[in-house]
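Reagents: none. Just compute today. Putative RNA-binding protein Luc7-like 2.
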Amino acid sequence: LFVETCTETSTMTASEQMRKMLDELMGTSRDGDGGKNTLPFTDTRVCRSYLLNCCPHEVLANTRMDMGICSRVHDPALRADYEKASTDRDYFYDVDALDHLERFFRDCDRRMESAKKRLAETQEELTEDLAEKGNKVLEFNEQIGTTLAEAEKLGEEGKVEESLKLMEKVEELRKLKQEADSVFRSSMPPSSYQQQKLRVCEVCSAYLGIHDNDRRLADHFGGKLHMGFVFLREKYAALQTVVILTGEIMIVHIVIIVLVQIMEAEIETQEDPEVEAVIVGLLMAVVSFSEGTFFVEKLQHSFTLILSLSTTQELRTKN
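Predicted 3D structure written out:
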């Protein structure tokens, strides 16, 4: 996880580290620490993004884009309380975290566009064909840096065989990069080629050099800043999916409630069975629409009610 920094750990005493680990594991109710936290995780002063492990203030701490201390409360014990409580009910904190990340990335994208404009002012504008060839070199740079960083990580974990396989892939990528760079170099005058030195990373907005060596690329793509942005962008995409599906399932619930009420009214007034059959069909269609989502367990009660109403309708039709 990117939510803990080496600096924080190194400045904590052994007892403080142990206390932090206990907070993360057991929450605010752990033995010997009762009453320390009077603030529940549901308090609006608690950072909801932190509870979901995606507060940029924490993920990007001690990087070039360190945002300082978050204005809301961060406490490992409160996060443990939330993780335990959220197994029984949905607090919909995904919406708050998504809003936080949307505002964060909106600012990041503005800075990225500004960086691109500044870069364009200092570098010669390329034709579409040359730009495409240059981007090919940059794509290989990114693949080399990402793969090399992953290989080093596997090596540190003792997974030597997997690490060596990735290093073989790095060698192949180096050859492809050299070929792409030769094509790019031969397509333009030497003076223009030398000007094309930098580009802006589309993930973290840092400047990257087209002529960067493998060590520099690995340090960037495997570094805390870039990996932190990768983590946040993946979390942002996941939250978008969750919020959209949550909205869909809420609509399904509303439709089910309305149809069930109509069905109950039809049964009580003993109206036309054909009308009831249509309503049952609509109910089953709505339930079928919701199948396949991970929210389907929330519809179990509705399934039971629909089946009971359907059975009642069938019995009345027979009678």
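The chain has three domains: 6-91, 106-222, 236-318.
Action item: order primers for follow-up constructs.
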